[in-house]
Specification:
mainly alpha, 2 strands, two-stranded antiparallel sheet, MetI-like fold
């Protein structure tokens, strides 16, 4: 009797898929459906919400105040993604061409942040960037050294060093998000680059193309699936980031996730918070759908 494909065996298929499907329905779809219903409701008391089918919460979310925060969140997430790509691509290349002896240790260094609590990592970065942190101390040491050299050669010394405000601003949020999300970019890039045929790179160099041209014309196009995967799994979490902007951002550096949190906690306006949440989810679904269409069109073109 010929071996039957397990996908064609409905009993085997449902035996394997029933548990994760039930888990998804009970602990994801069902709770999210309640939040979705809340987005069409209104507060009628301190703890009571009436599901009336109103669209007022979505209309309120289209006010410029909230749209500007959405746009700012998209902008910050895009900047973070681009920086992660610029930093992560050389790191992934180094991993790809590292010797067999050092590659596992380099991969371990990339994976270590996943084994450390995000809150601890964020506070560690805040210690580095604080007014009395190591970044300011290093810059102060360099500043004092330059001032001492100017004095030594008979020039006017530099004014006294004042610590730079590296925390509680937009720059701190971007740095923090890059610090958190960089491994999400490096790993897909490494996975794509590691599958490249190295002989194509050697052929390009042998035919006279320089290293930069080989990188742009050969390596990047072949690694594009990894690039797009890294962009998606970096952009979407960065768009919904809450902890890093909350701890490292100032009053003008809050993102849409922080606004949503305030609606559920401080403002006690769950219907409006639910509407903002699902607008963010809709935006993420659109990004994923666009990526899916791009991949489909790319396959059809080939």
């Amino acid at each position: 009797m010929a071996e039957q494909d397990w996908k064609e065996d409905k009993k085997a298929f449902w035996a394997v898929s029933a548990s994760p499907l039930l888990w998804t329905v009970l602990f994801f779809l069902l709770p999210m459906s309640f939040v979705w219903l809340y987005s069409f409701g209104s507060n009628v008391g301190l703890t009571e919400i009436e599901i009336s089918g109103t669209l007022d919460n979505y209309k309120r979310a289209t006010q410029w105040l909230y749209l500007s925060i959405f746009l700012k969140s998209f902008g910050v997430a895009a900047i973070v993604t681009v920086l992660c790509l610029i930093i992560g691509f050389p790191v992934a290349m180094a991993l790809t061409f590292a010797s067999e002896k050092w590659r596992p240790w380099l991969l371990l260094g990339i994976m270590l942040p996943f084994w450390t609590n995000l809150l601890i990592r964020t506070y560690a970065l805040m210690i580095m960037l604080g007014s009395n942190g190591y970044a300011n101390k290093a810059m102060g040491w360099l500043w004092d050294g330059a001032s001492w050299i100017k004095t030594l050669v008979g020039l006017q010394p530099l004014p006294t060093w004042e610590p730079v405000q590296l925390l509680y601003n937009n720059l701190a949020v971007v740095l923090g998000l890059v610090y958190v999300h960089l491994p999400f970019m490096v790993l897909p890039l490494y996975s794509a680059l590691d599958r490249l045929d190295k002989s194509l790179i050697e052929a390009s160099l042998d035919l006279g193309a320089g290293h930069l041209r080989t990188l742009l014309k050969v390596v990047v196009p072949l690694a594009m699936p990894g690039v797009m995967a890294g962009v998606m799994i970096t952009l979407i979490p960065a768009l919904g980031a809450y902890l890093t902007p909350d701890l490292m951002g100032g009053t003008e550096s809050q993102m849409i996730a922080n606004v949503i949190e305030r609606q559920f906690k401080r403002a006690n306006d769950w219907p409006f918070g639910a509407a903002l949440s699902f607008l963010l989810i809709y935006a993420m679904f659109i990004l994923i759908a666009l990526q899916g269409l791009r991949r489909k069109n790319g396959k059809e073109a080939h």
